[in-house]
Specification:
By secondary structure, the protein is of the alpha+beta class. The protein has two domains: about 35 residues, no CATH class; about 70 residues, no CATH class. The protein is about 45% helix and about 15% strand. It has six helices and two strands; from the N terminus they run αααββααα. The chain has a two-stranded antiparallel ribbon.
Length: about 110
């Protein structure tokens, strides 16, 4: 069994990741980095097909728009779903999909 110093020596961390691992980074910085690093948040459910020939995926897709980034940075995660519902009808490049819409599309 190698010594602890040997194991630490093999880890390669960026300075920011090292500060996070050491507990030197606050929630605000984590929220900021998360808001900038995300492209999408996707929730998926595998459901049995109506003809029992396998499964089909239903998914909810939240694009990381400026509004979503601001909500994440501000810690207002409870408002994300209302943003998701609102943006399903807006600009095609920002269009998002709720689970209900995905299920309705599969049932049609």
């Amino acid at each position: 069994m190698p010594h602890a110093w040997h194991m630490r020596k093999r880890r390669v961390l960026s300075p920011r990741a090292a500060r996070l691992a050491a507990g030197e980074v606050g929630e605000e910085e984590v929220a900021n980095q998360l808001s900038l690093g995300l492209a999408y948040i996707i929730c998926q459910k595998l459901l049995p097909r109506a003809d029992d020939a396998g499964r089909v995926v239903a998914m909810e897709v939240l694009n990381n728009t400026y509004a979503v980034q601001n909500l994440i940075r501000a810690g207002k995660l409870e408002q994300l779903y209302s943003t998701l519902q609102t943006k399903t009808r807006d600009v095609a490049t920002e269009r998002m999909v709720t689970m209900e819409q995905s299920l309705a599309g599969l049932a049609a």
